[in-house]
Amino acid sequence: LLIEDLFIIYVSSSDKISVSLYLSNDLAIKKIKQRENLNTRLSDPNYKITKLAYHGNTLDFLVEGIGKVHVVGKVTALSIAHHAHLTISKYKGTLLW
Asked: In what order do the strands lie in the sheet with 88-90?
């Protein structure tokens, strides 16, 4: 998933999964099914990659100042390529705003 030119969520799974994005409607989201290097689409070439450990069937994480992401299903790998100034952190709890 490419969100604007701010960050990219790479999700690998052999099963069907659900990814819910709780973001501003003003942000453009593009879903790309094939594995390709989208990092060239980020506006800042000095991006970093955050890998999140995934245990169980759900994962919630925050993109500071942007929104929340909720993933359900068996994921084999999840990483986020993002601008260095964006903070990515795991979130545990209810997704209420």
From this structure: 18-23, 67-72, 58-63, 88-90
